[in-house]
Amino acid sequence: MPARSKDRTPKSGTPGAAIEPHVLYPLPEFMRRTGWGRHAVRAAKAKGLTVRYTANRGYVHGKDFIDYVLNDAGAAEEKAAA
After folding, report:
1. Which residues of 34-51 are buried (b: 16+ CB within 10 A; e: fewer)?
2. 46-49-50 Cα angle (round to 5)
3. Which ranges of the chain would DSSP assign to H, the alpha helix?
4. DSSP assignment of 12-28, as one string?
5. Three-state secondary-structure class, residue 7
6. Is residue 63 a contact partner of residue 44, using CB atoms and an 8 Å limit?
7. In angstroms, rounded to a whole number, what is the distance separating the alpha carbons of residues 66 and 51?
8. CA-based radius of gyration for the chain
9. Can you tell me the distance from the alpha carbon of 80 to that of 66, in angstroms, rounded to the nearest whole number?
10. What residues does each domain of the chain span?
11. How many whole angstroms separate alpha carbon 49 and alpha carbon 15?
12. Which sign, positive or negative, has the C-alpha torsion 54, 55, 60, 61?
């Protein structure tokens, strides 16, 4: 029996989709756009990513994510230089 190939068609919200600084993303959409799983989000929260909760739903503001990435990258560069 021939091996089945996986469907390679892009879905909406595929990893690599842009995170806009002025948009508030529901956590599932944020995870789809970044390609992050629950563990990655938890680790980022522990390192300073702000996730806001209301009505038992999580949201990430695009600007908060961009700031987190820029600060996390800066910290990694400083650590490498030391």
Report:
1. bebeeeebeebeeeebeb
2. 110
3. 27-34, 38-46, 62-81
4. TT-TT----TT-EEEHH
5. coil
6. no
7. 13
8. 16
9. 21
10. 24-81
11. 18
12. negative
Q: Which two tokens stand for residue 5?
A: 């190939």
Tokens of 24: 């508030």
The residue behind tokens 């909406």 is 12
Distance CA 71, CA 4 (A): 43
- Residue 43 token pair: 């680790």
Residue listed under structure tokens 């700031």 = 67
Tokens matching residue 71: 């600060």
Nearby residues of 2 by Cβ (< 8 Å), 6 or more positions away: none
Question: pTM for this one?
Answer: 0.72
**Tens-digit pLDDT profile for the chain (82 aa)?**
556 655 554 455 566 789 999 999 999 999 999 999 999 999 999 999 999 999 999 999 999 999 999 998 667 666 667 6
